[in-house]
Amino acid sequence: xxxxxxxxxxxxxxxxxxxxxxxxxxxxxxxxxxxxxxxxxxxxxxxxxxxxxxxxxxxxxxxxxxxxxxxxxxxxxxxxxxxxxxxxxxxxxxxxxxxxxxxxxxxxxxxxxxxxxxxxxxxxxxxxxxxxxxxxxxxxxxxxxxxxxxxxxxxxxxxxxxxxxxxxxxxxxxxxxxxxxxxxxxxxxxxxxxxxxxxxxxxxxxxxxxxxxxxxxxxxxxxxxxxxxxxxxxxxxxxxxxxx
Length: 244
Known about the structure:
Blueprint: H1 3-14, H2 23-26, H3 31-40, H4 45-53, E1 67-70, E2 76-82, E3 88-93, E4 103-107, E5 124-129, H5 131-137, E6 142-146, H6 155-162, E7 166-170, H7 175-191, E8 197-201, H8 209-214, H9 218-223, E9 228-232, H10 240-243
Parallel strand pairs: 5-6, 5-7, 7-8
Antiparallel strand pairs: 1-2, 2-3, 3-4, 8-9
């Protein structure tokens, strides 16, 4: 055998805990894949501190629900979330800089869906805008998240998560969120997915799901039927079905 193969064999057998790196394969990784690999290897201490400050119990979250990113000066700058297809890196900055949005997306936004908080055992699934909101619902409620109001989802991407479920569209109550909610609802009807029902969660303009959690109002808000508007099936006004 050639010497590199001998070394690889010896290392693999003498030190099985050591993962032999094929440098030829590593060099074929794209810059996005290299960044994704680096992020997954980072510690998460500051990310945990940030999320717990938002009222989220990190001990109850699924494994690898979030990651942590370091800036070029080796300081923690953001909590990171990865979409289910591993084609989008969503960063939520821990400390905001003047004139900069509190999040950014790197990768493919179209069809990007966060599904770590989806629970197939639940008969209701919430669709939220932003991962922080879906983390705020877990583990009491099942949910999936889009990463922004401009994040369009195809039938193939979402069908398995909403089929035969009661769907609650819980996007933010602002211009972008309301427009995205209308598009999503119309698509669900046009796609002819066999959902049981579709409701719109009636959030106020000033509070999203996480705001309600931080203020201690989320549980009571979600239990009140007055905070849901039924979109499908549609009932005729004053009909027997509506009264029932």
